[in-house]
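pasting for the record
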Amino acid sequence: MSDATGAVLEAVRALAPALRERAADAEAARKVPEDSVKELAATGFFRLLQPRAYGGLAADPVAFYTAVKEIAKACGSTGWVASVVGVHPWHVALYERAAQEEVWGADPDTRICSSYAPTGKVTPVDGGFTLSGRWHFSSGCDHTDWALLGGLVTDADGRPVDMRTFLVPRTAYRVDEVWDTVGLRGSGSNDVVCEDVFVPDHRALSFGPVTALDAPGLAANPEPLYRLPYAAVFTTTISTPIVGIAEGAYEGHLAATRERFRVSYGQQVAEDPFAQVRIARAAADIDASWLQLTRNMAELYERARAGEPLPLELRARARRDQVLATERAVAAVDLLMENAGGSAMRTGADRVQRAWRDVHTGRGHAANDPERALVLYGQAALGLDIQDTML
């Protein structure tokens, strides 16, 4: 880890108490407080995965995920937004240099949101495409100036022939504030709406070359970070804040349990052996989640640094462990909630309740569908042919 990356991690950890203090404010506002975003930007966090050509660190991805975990421990919504917005510089780095220049040329601190599900209409036109429609769940879109929007390109008969991600400036779309949920309330995951927005070819990146690790941006950004698989990078981006939320809940639960007295049994809860067992199981699940996530990303990155191929088996393992990391983290928080007693269910009660709501909301993300990911691993283990862009 470079000194610059280490300094970012140190600054993020120093900021965590302030983020924790604002967690209730984020929920009330249904978006991350502006002060939190500005202070995170000041730590250098949003430059961790940005290319060096635009003032970024092109850092070891494990350092990025470690920073995300620390943020999510303090505030789940802030951690979610930090992870999702923080990974987008990695994706923009895969575009043609002209697109990168449009985003960062005038301001290297420009941030990007996303909505990858292809819910809008894409129409091919001379020199590019037009977009119309509504894209949902764009986390942190209030704090960004560009959006990455997924879309299906169809042939004359309406059959899908390509899946692309369209890079659109904030001046060309509007944000509809529709986000109102029980969990991750502060993530501000609102809708992005486009009406006949023109997107030139150089800002319409196909998933084909991205999945094949042959994206056009690699010519401009030779750092090994950009030779990692999209599926591993982005799905780990979704699981990591959930693991961080679980770790924060665990720490909060320990602090509360040391002081809690259970009247019905006439004992300190800390002395209850069944409570102790639940704590042990939760801790093990959280540890297992984090160890597997970081092992896989570290191995992928090391192979990329060495210029080695990234075998299918490793890519499938990364997806397997990513969905199971989410599953374990959610199970761990469920155990802590079972142990927390009825008072934890009061409105605005404590960290464990907020974490419980947050992890179950995050679990609903498409990247956390365990069966779809686990079947890919089973197919790879059996030597079957796999055709899936999320591997």
